[in-house]
Known about the structure:
Elements: E1 2-3, E2 10-11, H1 23-29, H2 35-52, H3 56-112, E3 121-124, E4 138-144, E5 149-153, E6 159-164, E7 168-170, E8 179-182, E9 191-198, E10 203-208, E11 215-219, E12 223-225
Antiparallel strand pairs: 1-2, 3-4, 3-7, 4-5, 5-6, 8-9, 8-12, 9-10, 10-11
Amino acid sequence: MVKLTISQQLISINKFHLQLVSKTDYEKNAKILNKAKVDDYYAEEKKNKSHRNVSPESSRENYEHKKRDRKWQREGDSKDKSRDADRKRKYEDDKSESHTSKKSSSKSSSHTDCWLHPLLRVRIVDKHYRKGKYYNMKVEVVDVVTTNTCVCKTEQGKVLEDLSQSMVETVIPKADSAHVMIVSGKYKGQLGEIIKKDKSKCTTTVQLLSSRDKAVKLHFDSVCEYLGDVNTEPDF
């Protein structure tokens, strides 16, 4: 039989469920109902107390450590921003160089790929040439002075000088069976006769004078109205 400390009740229990303790342990823990939780509580209190009682030296070390961490973080952020700025500048420089290169290539192309030719009818599209007086007017190319400039003549016989290739555009004849010169591509320089136009697609079908059984489909920009006498041309 075993007598319980708190209730003073006598109970019958197997001896294997009992543990012999010293008088000191009995007096200390006899009236504690849940010793495991009490032990956990005191352990947590001891841990919290140790944190509250941190020495000034330890606190200072922690402060310096955190200060160094913040400094390294700021330096890292600064380096990241610097790298980002460098990358952005490089991108802008590359973009600028690419744009300059394209402009240079475009200018070079405009000089080398000359399509102007005497006896072509072209339209003036530069609003600033001669203060816009001849804007949208159709004129005849009289002479090609350089690879980029020409001399033209109006229907009234007015001679216009210093017209650059960029100031004019090709003209497509309104009438069918009109003659044109191919000004770009594989058949550049050849004469032909228009047999069909597709305004919705800006294309025209041209029968080559040099080969009557051959017709090619070309964009409007690739052909220009020809004002010369095709009967005197070698292609005819």
